[in-house]
Amino acid sequence: MTHIAKPRFRHPKLPVNALGFTRRDYEGAVSTLCAGCGHDSISGAIIQACFELDLPPHRLAKLSGIGCSSKTPTYFLGNSHGFNSVHGRMPSVLTGANLANRDLVYLGVSGDGDSASIGLGQFAHCLRRGVDMVYIVENNGVYGLTKGQFSATADQGAKDRRGGANPDAAVDLPSLALLMGATFVARSFSGDKAQLVPLIKAAMRHRGAAFIDCISPCVAFNNHAGSTKSFDFVREHNEAVNFLDVFTGRDEITADYEEGTVQEIVQHDGSVLRLKKLGADYDATDPVAALAYLQSHQTAGEVVTGLIHVKAAAEDLHARMETVEAPLSSLDEAELCPGADALAAINAALR
To answer: Which residue among 78, 146, 215, 268 has the highest number of C-beta atoms inside a 10 angstrom radius?
Structure first.
């Protein structure tokens, strides 16, 4: 894949953080996603969060699966570690990397298809094991790379661009994360940077499995059947020497509203997304109350955003497995392979 390089020229007086880095030092390649895509806003929020946390880029490991969302690590923190895995398998690859080197900050980026369908089992087990990571799902309710079919997180009764209604019940990822024992659960909106950046910063400082479900509207699928300006019609009537896709630019959808209030967001296709921001009196430490709160507002057609649940004194996978403090990748052969006598003693203890 060819990436467009960003110009190296920059203003000499750009703000710097405590490390002397500018925000530009946390960026990646130029995005190839559709203009106005909410995923780019999430990338911007990750960049801002890492800049404000004074995080050295080389201390972050970013991992992803397959989908529009899983392309986004290319567009932020170009000087960090990265691994693009296969569809739905990001959690297991990240778990292995985390066990091998606990000194890195792990960020897993996924999508609603990647995590709520083929990767649903890996999503659940990664959270219940308490892998020390930030798990962000960029949730748009459609399969963006395969022309906008409903994904598992699409609300029942939601309509596609052709007017067809989704007959299936939705998988609510924050509710599932709570049931799986995640110790940090949040939901946000890609256009609400004032909320999303602090959530990402808090998740990165949390020890254990931190999950953020980020609603990220897809802007690409607005060309309907029967339109002579649609992509399909032009392709059928054009004798072209090659096959190209062009996406028209869209304005980014943003939101700025008070705690405890409901905000209706009109999306590019005319549909309305109702967001409810948690109030200051909300108790995020009670997982049972959090689950009831989520379900009651979901019944009312509201998408709850904010820090839904956090367990302050949480343990991660290393604490539960009692691994050594040093990263496994730094141990020598004698430490990793203590010999037959040590193995025999372990086996005898398990009989």
So the answer is: 215
